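Hello again, I could really use a second opinion on something today. I owe you a coffee for this, so here goes:
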Amino acid sequence: MQMALAPDISTWPDNEPRLIGSRCALCGATTFPAQSRCPRCSSAEMAELLLPRRGTLIAWTTQGFPPGPPYRGPTGDLFEPFGVGLVQLGFGDDAVIRVEGRLTESDPARLEFGMEVELVMVPFTEVDGNEIVTFAFQPV
C-alpha cells in the first residue's frame, strides 16, 4: 500500500495532486505548508489555497549524502543522491509562491534555470511493507 510521508500537505492520492498552502485574507501573503497565522501580518484570517501544479525551476543542487534529522529516508548503501530545487509555482501574474522540494532529476547537466516543472508524487522509502511517497518536481 502507498502512504504519503506528509498527508496534510497535498491532495494526493488525486490523479493530479496539488500542494496545500494558505493565503492571508488581510495582506495576501501565501504560505506553504498551510499555516493558521500569517507570517507577514500575524492575522489569523488564513484560508486554504490549492497551489498551482506547474512552475519554474529557480535554483537547484544535488543532495549527495543523507540529510540530518528529522530525515526518515534511506541511509547507508540504500541512499541515492537526489536533486533539490526551488520552484516558483504558477506563471506570470499567477505566480504565487516559491517552494523547495525534491526533483525527479539529480543530474545538474539536465537542469536549466527557468525550466518548467510539474508536481508529481515519488517513492521515498518503505515502512512496514508500505511504500511511503513524497512530492517532487519533474521537468515538463
About this structure: The radius of gyration is 16 Å.
